[in-house]
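Provenance and format

Records in this collection were gathered into a single text stream. Each protein contributes a sequence line and a token line. The two records reproduced below are adjacent in the stream.
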Amino acid sequence: MIFGKYGTMILENMEKNYPYRKKELELKGELDIKILQREKYILELKKEVEEKIKKEHQVPNTHEISILAKYQQMIDGLVDEVLMKEILQKI
């Protein structure tokens, strides 16, 4: 199964911190489904978190691409920090 960014992070976390739970879900044939469900939840949460952060940190008043790109990178980093708690939770 191919996962997105957050699904891959969830899988890596399970391999590192919850290997027996991962094996249990694999044996039941539920691992991919559980990871996809958690990833979907995180992506929905990401939209809400990103909106909130963008309200707190207004877009720079410029048309310069490099500044706007740095702003978006900052937003992405802040969003990922908030979502990390969800990513690291045991499934």
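Adjacent record:
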Amino acid sequence: MKISVLLTIAFILTIIFNGCNSEENSASQAEYIEPCEPVTVVLPGYVMEPAGDTVSVPNSTSVMLYYWLPLEKFEAMEVDLLFLASVDSTILVLPVQPDQESRNHAQRVVNSLEISLSVYLADSTLMEIFEGTVLPITVLYTPEGDLFTAEGFGAPLRILEKHQTGI
């Protein structure tokens, strides 16, 4: 009988202490959870703005790089450029070229479309990600660490659809 009384008391104490500890643990865990720091995409090289400043990527912003052969009056390319100009501000769109002369020519091509879209100068380290690929090529870096690539005309739209659907 003494054993059953002791077991009953032990059982009741266990319930009381576990209940209290669960609430304390929940409360203490909530106190120690640190807020998520915004993540910034780090590119494998440098991108220069037309004015010569290095592009800085805002926190929690995806970056879309687009490298193409800037041909004048080439409809498929124009469709890509018009699409890039319409991408919302949650994605930093960076049409890039490997040298100043190409960048200037590409900017003239973009300007002829009467859209607001700057063309950037990429350093040789960044340009390495485009080696051995079919142009145009689009690369999307996300703050979550995902990397999406697509080649050919229509790649910017395909890559955003792939990113948004998670496929």
